UniProtKB/TrEMBL annotation:
Domain of life: Bacteria
Pfam families in the cross-refs: OpcA_G6PD_assem, OpcA_G6PD_C
Residue spans of biased composition, Low complexity class: 303-312, 333-355
Identification of the protein by name: Oxidoreductase
Record lineage: Bacteria, Bacillati, Actinomycetota, Actinomycetes, Streptosporangiales
Segments of skewed composition (Gly residues): 313-325
Length: 355
């Protein structure tokens, strides 16, 4: 069922939702959350389609906020209600014109499902400066961004790291869930001490930066970044005395797991569509502490990379000198500069942080 409302109000939208629900015999008690999508007209189709697919696993009310002509026109609200077409959820497209677009939260709040969590998602490159401080982000327990779709991928991830608040997450992190699971399973088996790590990926990959940061945090090692032709992450190498533990994927579909003294093993490791990423984020509505550790580490490494360093022969007097913190210093040095060095390195060449 589709209902189009032109120059409408939130009250009329709510009444239309109730009427449509009664006509279809589907009460709203099955809704588990409200998903707010903040997008524009060009990206709304793909975003709504992904949300509709994710709603099959998580029945929800999807409120899609589309800003139109924020300047030079009078305030107006148009709505399109979709119900029962492809799943149990409800989808409302809210097109806001004029000054109303600057106050989207005043339209969204009356339409939230009562007593259910709220997730706000900014698909594409629409990443707010501070997700938790955005009026629509402040309504949500979870705030989902996608730094990979931004024009400046690593710069966007760095900014998100600086303003991180519990409940924030990014699809750059969600994309490496299967990588992390595979590596964790490989490391559950007996192995020699890991001394250094390496992550290879296409240039400007937020997922590669977060995977490298996660490995540094979890293993306490130095992880360097190398640049490949992609797609996405193409390999992870963990060096031990007896040989390398390596996962390589060059076609975006199947990976090869190599371990010292064992035959290579083929493992499915597909690049996941947007709907799968969104569905994963909707499964967990509490703060992701592991992501917090990784993105905090990324921010720390980036700060170390941009902090002016003293002369190499100054001895132990400066902030980079002294004793007792060699492990931390080495780890920072290995990862610091990943964002800049990996960006500048030619494909197939080791980035500056690997030196």
């Amino acid at each position: 069922m589709n209902i189009d409302l032109t120059d409408t109000t939130t009250r009329r939208i709510q009444e239309s939702l109730t009427q449509a629900r009664h006509l279809m015999g589907g009460p709203a008690v099955g809704m588990v959350l409200t998903l707010i999508i903040v997008t524009d007209e060009s990206a709304q189709y793909d975003a709504v389609r992904a949300a509709t697919e994710a709603a099959r696993e998580h029945p929800c009310r999807v409120l899609t906020v589309i800003s139109r002509d924020a300047r030079g026109s009078s305030s107006r609200l148009d709505a399109e209600i979709r119900m029962g077409e492809t799943g149990p959820g409800e989808t409302v497209l809210l097109r806001m014109y004029g000054p109303l677009a600057e106050h989207a939260d005043s339209v969204v709040v009356p339409l939230l499902m009562p007593d259910t969590p709220v997730v706000t998602w900014w698909p594409g490159g629409r990443v707010p400066k501070v997700p938790s401080g955005d009026p629509l982000g402040a309504l949500a327990a979870r705030r989902v961004t996608d730094s990979y779709a931004a024009r400046d991928r690593l710069g966007t991830l760095a900014r998100l790291a600086e303003v991180y608040r519990p409940g924030d997450t990014d699809f750059g992190w969600t994309r490496i869930t299967n990588w992390r699971s595979l590596l964790a399973a490989a490391l559950d088996q007996d192995h020699d001490e890991i001394t250094v790590g390496e992550v290879s990926a296409e240039p400007d990959s937020p997922s590669a930066e977060l995977l490298a940061a996660w490995l540094e945090v979890r293993l306490g090692i130095r992880v360097v970044r190398t640049v490949s032709d992609g797609p996405g992450i193409t390999g992870v190498r963990l060096t031990t005395r007896s040989g390398d533990i390596e996962v390589s994927r060059h076609d975006g579909r199947v990976a090869t797991l190599s371990r010292p003294g064992q035959p290579d093993r083929q493992v499915a490791l597909h690049r996941r569509p947007m709907a799968d990423l969104l569905a994963e984020e909707l499964r967990r509505l509490d703060p992701d502490e592991v992501y917090q550790d990784a993105v905090t580490r990324f921010a720390k490494d980036l700060t170390a990379a941009t902090t002016p360093q003293g002369p190499a022969d100054t001895g132990g007097g400066g902030t980079d000198g002294g004793t007792g913190d060699g492990a931390d210093k080495g780890s920072d040095k290995g990862a610091a500069g990943r964002a800049g060095a990996a960006k500048k390195a030619a494909p197939g060449k080791r980035s500056g942080s690997a030196k």
